[in-house]
């Protein structure tokens, strides 16, 4: 496992697209090829052929509604407590409202 001491000490990290997906356990390509992740976080991602594109609204207990835009073909699955509930859009995977 790759050690990232600052992240383990609670320092924030901004990871986008493939950089985010590779922080997990693995990334499964659309043809079924697994790519080993860094195991920094407990999640996995799967690439699908259709993209999830559009506005996203997340209802959070601490910050109210967060508005954004998403454009991704990867679906990420985890067991962490989410920041909020997706009320419009797809979220991490388009299935569980996270």
UniProtKB/TrEMBL annotation:
Q: Keywords on this record? A: Glutamine amidotransferase
Leader sequence range is none
Domain CobB/CobQ-like glutamine amidotransferase, by residue range, is 9-96
According to the UniProt entry, its GO molecular function terms are: catalytic activity
InterPro entries membership: Class_I_gatase-like (IPR029062), GATase_3 (IPR011698)
Q: What is the protein's given name?
A: CobB/CobQ-like glutamine amidotransferase domain-containing protein
């Amino acid at each position: 496992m790759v050690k990232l001491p600052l992240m383990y000490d609670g320092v924030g990290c901004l990871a986008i697209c493939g950089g985010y997906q590779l922080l997990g356990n693995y990334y499964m390509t659309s043809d079924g090829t697994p790519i080993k992740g860094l195991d920094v976080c407990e999640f996995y991602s799967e690439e699908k052929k259709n993209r999830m594109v559009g506005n996203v609204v997340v209802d959070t207990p601490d910050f109210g509604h967060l508005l954004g835009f998403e454009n991704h073909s990867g679906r990420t699955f985890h067991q962490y407590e989410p920041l909020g509930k997706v009320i419009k859009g797809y979220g991490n995977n388009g299935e569980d409202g996270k």
